[in-house]
Design a protein that fits this description.
Length: about 270
């Protein structure tokens, strides 16, 4: 699944020269640090590399390219960790950093040349940066930025509205049903329990009158349909997502009406 979107290349073209220059200077400073500064305990070149990358990162954030901005931030954090001494600048780490700088430039070149904005292309380099920092492997959804403004289709007929104690009881019963099905699915490791989970999510989706409130639960129904059809692996990432759906049910019963954007992105991915 990708997250290609129509991209207005104008804002990027206005600042791309500045970004390219900053990335080039960052790469040169990193090379100079490896050549002499590191041996003498001088971190000025390393600081220059990070400052130039930070300048490029700031320009990217203004343009609104979420995925490559996420990547540049991770790369800046790697240089910061090296500067602070929590990560040693081994040849492998230096190569990862240089490859990351090059990956940003090539990605932006592709955008200017008409390629779609698909930051998942940066995933191998993004994971290499995380590994260099000693972090767990990040999931692909960290570089997945779909259009969050889309809403579910209109219902043919609206159900009777619920409020107050009736709505609270409905939500609590739905969560109990979801947890019952989830426990069966986790225990048996197959499709057993998924219909109960889907029924619970469907009942919550029906209780939401506004399209914005329905969106997450409508997406969650799609996830459960994919699980039932064998379209999703029975792995840790899916189990964690289901557990987070359960937590969102709890938050909803406590009065929360918003859903964390990261959860929405993970469910869509």
């Amino acid at each position: 699944m990708n997250n290609a979107a129509e991209l207005d290349i104008g804002p990027l073209s206005w600042v791309k020269g500045e970004i390219d220059l900053a990335l080039e200077r960052a790469a040169e400073a990193l090379d100079r640090h490896r050549a002499d500064g590191a041996q003498e305990g001088d971190s000025s070149h390393l600081k220059s590399a990070r400052n130039n990358l930070h300048q490029a990162h700031g320009a990217l954030s203004i343009v609104g390219l979420d995925g490559v901005t996420q990547f540049s931030d991770a790369l800046e954090q790697l240089l910061k960790a090296v500067e602070e001494g929590s990560v040693v600048l081994t040849p492998a780490v230096a190569e990862t950093a240089q490859h990351g700088l090059s990956a940003i430039r090539h990605y932006l070149d592709d955008l200017v040349n008409g390629q779609p904005d698909q930051p998942l292309k940066l995933l191998p380099a993004y994971r290499a940066v995380a590994a260099a920092r000693g972090l767990p492997e990040p999931p692909p959804s960290e570089l997945f930025f779909p259009d969050m403004s889309l809403r579910p289709p209109r219902r043919e007929q609206e159900p009777p509205p619920l409020s107050g104690d009736a709505l609270l009881g409905h939500l609590r019963a739905a969560r109990a049903g979801f947890e019952h099905g989830l426990l069966k699915w986790l225990r048996d490791g197959d499709a057993v329990g998924i219909p109960e989970m889907r029924q619970a999510v469907a009942s919550i989706e029906l209780s939401q009158a506004q399209a914005g409130g329905r969106a997450f639960w409508w997406i969650a129904l799609g996830v459960l349909d994919a699980m039932a059809a064998g379209g999703l692996p029975n792995d840790l990432s899916v189990k964690r997502l289901c557990a987070r759906v359960d937590i969102q049910m709890k938050r909803l019963s406590e009065g929360a009406r918003t859903v964390d954007e990261r959860l929405m992105r993970d469910a869509l991915y």
